[in-house]
Amino acid sequence: MSNHANPDSTPILKNFFSRENLRFNIHNLSYLPRWIIVMMDCAVLMVAFFFTYLLFRGTGLDYIVTTHTALYLSFLFGVNIFFFWLFRTYSGIIRHSSYIDAVKLLFSQMAVLIILLLLNFAFELFYGYKAFLNTALFINMVLSFCGLFMYRVIVKQTFEYYFSEKSDIKLSRTIIYGTDANAISVANALKLESPPRFKIVAFVDKNDQNSSKRMLDLPILILKKKLPTLMRSIGAEGVIIADKSLSKEERLVIVDQCLEFNYKVYIIPLITDWENQKEISQKVKTIQIEDLLERKPIVLDNKSISKQLKDNTILITGAAGSIGSEIVRQVLLYNPKKIIILDQAETPLHHLRLETEVLPTNSKIRTVVGDIRNREAMDRVFRLYRPQVVFHAAAYKHVPLMEENPSQAILTNIGGTKNLADLSCLYKVRKFVMISTDKAVNPSNVMGASKRISEKYVQSLSLKTERKVGEKTTKFITTRFGNVLGSNGSVVPLFTKQIAEGGPITITHPDIIRYFMTIPEACQLVLEAGAMGKGGEIYIFDMGKPVKIIDLARKMIKLAGYVPDKEIKIQIVGLRPGEKLYEELLNDTSKTILTHHEKIMIAEEIQDEFESLHADIESLIDNADFLGNDEIVMKMKKIVPEFKSMNSTFELLDVK
């Protein structure tokens, strides 16, 4: 054999002990078994004992007075292990040790001290002398606690150092807005996040109370100027809003300021689970457009809604749509006896069925594939299930498509509504709630006009049934609101898709504005209006402030981390047929009546006599498949005189 070392072994050993490989090995260490942690704790106890023994030996004093040294040592370690087990000091993961683990160690060592002091007192009582020196025992326990605590701190800091020093990951320099417990919890959670996303560089205090202090070894900055100025001074790239005392208005100001200078903004809900750090870090997310349009939570009259829905059979049409499916989810919360979900779209209906099957509910759920235009099919549904409440959300709603296909708007939006309303009267449904749209107000397109005719029919039917004295009649209620954020056909999903594809974002007009509300908010108000309705009302909802679509687009581009008009272009394509610059919630001749709910009002519309309106609508539906588009629209304009076409070929009909 050669006496020379294998030349290939040196680079292998060097590579094995390299910093990168060492970090990799530490990162992939499994959590140690509990018996190893106990053995490590016992080793610390042994070192603390011998250090105490030598310390007092050097002063000429004996730590152990009794001759039964081995027995004392066995008892000392036995009692320590017992209290380790009692306080479960070994059950925590050392690399994630916290102040709770320190408290457990302190209690265990105090308990050992008390037990051994009692033993020493008993020994002196029965034998006339002490078994050991009380002062030495106290010093031993202090050293034991310090040793047990310090080695946990060293392990924890070692792991944090190696995990935070990854040269191949560029962390986003971020500040945390807030200095309360919520902010501290977020910071701790993000420090332990793996893989890490943020490098927290500072906290921001809006109250100017902690300017000379530090928190988690990070500076606390005072907000004397605008937040972007402060962020620029320390090289921060983003901010996490964690201050639970901020009002909605203050939060929006911060977001607008940061987006103006292309800083990233993150939010996190109020932290309630202080132990689950991983869950907290996962909740830190980029602020969404829904968060910016969010309003105060809606307070519902749950008692009134429950009285209408609980233990009743509820029919929901258009149940597979964005509005219909949310109504299904919210209605289920009120424990109806049975809920019938009806739609003609097979695949979305199937997905909703799979979703509802796993929900914890005692309500029976029946899925019906059906077309509301088919009177016979709808009759079978009413005859079989006998619903007490109907939520009618089925409709064609895309303005350009209905402008090109007015006959389909007639057959579905008007004919389908008429079928359901008539059958509700026939089968004595208690309440019929129709979901309409702000496009029905002073309509400028076929879709809006078709919804307005549906409103008029339902309202006139309600007027007719009211005249039947002593007879149980159906109460017809209409709800009218604007664009629903994130619903099918909304601009938000469209803009999101266009941004993901690199742009451009297409906008029909730079001055176009719309009202927005979230899907859950709209559906909550539908349930509330349905519960308070006495019959014949058209309820309109408080939609908040109108939003300029081009401003919405710019905010969404900035939220996605791009620069508007540079990285993502905004393209003006012109108004679509039938599209308005702005939508209204009231006709020119209408007035509003306040209700007990601050977000719901009643529109006072001029009601048409049932007989004349019924004849016109019957004629419109019967001839929808045979008349030309111009003739259909002319008939619609006769029923709805305020229907004035805009940006459409049908504008010529208004001149005549």
Q: Could you list some keywords that capture this structure?
A:
elongated, 3 domains, seven-stranded mixed β-sheet, nine-stranded mixed β-sheet, 24 helices, Rossmann fold, 22 strands, disordered N terminus, 49% helix, alpha/beta, 656 residues
Structure description:
With 656 residues, this protein is an alpha/beta fold. The protein folds into three domains: 34-164, no CATH class; 172-287, NAD(P)-binding Rossmann-like Domain (Rossmann fold), CATH 3.40.50; 302-639, Rossmann fold. 49% of the residues lie in helices and 14% in strands. The protein has a nine-stranded mixed beta sheet, sandwiched between helices. The protein has a seven-stranded mixed beta sheet with strand order 3-4-2-1-5-6-7, with helices on both faces. Strand 5, helix 9 and strand 6 (264-267) form a beta-alpha-beta unit. Helix 3 (34-58) crosses helix 6, helix 4 (69-87) packs antiparallel against helix 5 (99-127) and helix 13 (322-332) packs across helix 20 (519-532). The longest helix has 31 residues, at 134-164.
List the helices and strands and how they pair.
Elements: H1 9-16, H2 19-27, H3 34-58, H4 69-87, H5 99-127, H6 134-164, E1 172-177, H7 181-191, E2 198-205, E3 214-215, E4 218-222, H8 227-234, E5 238-241, H9 248-260, E6 264-267, H10 277-282, E7 285-286, H11 289-293, H12 302-309, E8 313-317, H13 322-332, E9 338-343, H14 346-357, E10 364-369, H15 375-385, E11 389-392, H16 399-404, H17 406-426, E12 431-435, H18 446-466, E13 475-480, E14 483-485, H19 491-500, E15 505-507, E16 513-514, E17 516-518, H20 519-532, E18 538-541, E19 547-548, H21 549-559, E20 570-572, E21 591-594, E22 600-604, H22 610-623, H23 629-639, H24 651-655
Parallel strand pairs: 1-2, 1-5, 2-4, 5-6, 8-9, 8-11, 9-10, 11-12, 12-13, 13-18, 14-17, 15-20
Antiparallel strand pairs: 3-4, 6-7, 16-19, 18-22, 21-22
Helix pairs in contact: 3-6, 4-5, 5-6, 12-20, 13-20, 15-17, 17-18, 18-22, 18-23, 22-23
